[in-house]
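Objective 1b. Sequence-to-structure analysis of Sulfotransferase.
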Amino acid sequence: MRNGIHFISGLPRSGSTLLAGILRQNPRFHAGMTSPVGSMYMGLEQSMSRRNETAVFIDPQQRREVLSGLFTNYYGDIQSSKVVFDTNRLWCAKLPALTQLFPDAKTICCVRDVNWIMDSIERLVRRNAFEPSGMFGFESGGTVFSRISAAASSDGLVGYALDALKDGFFGEQAPSMILVEYEALVSNPGRALKMIYDFVGEPWLAHDFDNVEYAADEFDLALGAPGLHTIRRKVEFIGRQTVLPPQLFHRFDDDMFWRNPEANRHQVTIIRPG
């Protein structure tokens, strides 16, 4: 990657689309919502595994070149003029490979109080009350309890991302990560962005936090979740009451592991409000 590549990962409904919308204001940066590179990467890994009997003819260097070439070829001319930020929840679980493929790459992980993540998901479902969501298999007979349980499962929208985040946070490659709490990003975006710029080693460019634009209407509509990737123009914190029943809202009180200083054994940089 001629001008460099970094990754955006972390938890859903935690500001990754907003962050991409801000970063893309910089003409030197390419950023967006979840790209297809992650799923293609997984497909290549599987096709080169021992599940494929011809994989015995692929040596370790060839594996590296094939996987590295995926990024180079997908971004094509983009990476000749811009720094790429590729977004996918799985990147936190792939740090051992990513740090070998791209030693200078950093992974920006957007995180948030898990209770409020679940609230945000349920709020989106209720906003689109007449259209079953692909986030839950387009099932129309669920309840708030079944939806939250599905999202929290190990292969669910939130559960998988949370496990992947832990995978990276507690692994040896954790120093290549930076965690950005949602409240820090929306309450003081200038401070958060300057810390991100410093972390990835890029010269600062002033951003317009009153006019941030990003939408993926066609993708969201196909998923049955209109508005999933639409962000408000002005970056600001907006307080609200939860729509979740109390027993659901407090179910995830103990899941914000990154807030425990003793758990941060690799001294991962965390951008908190304040």
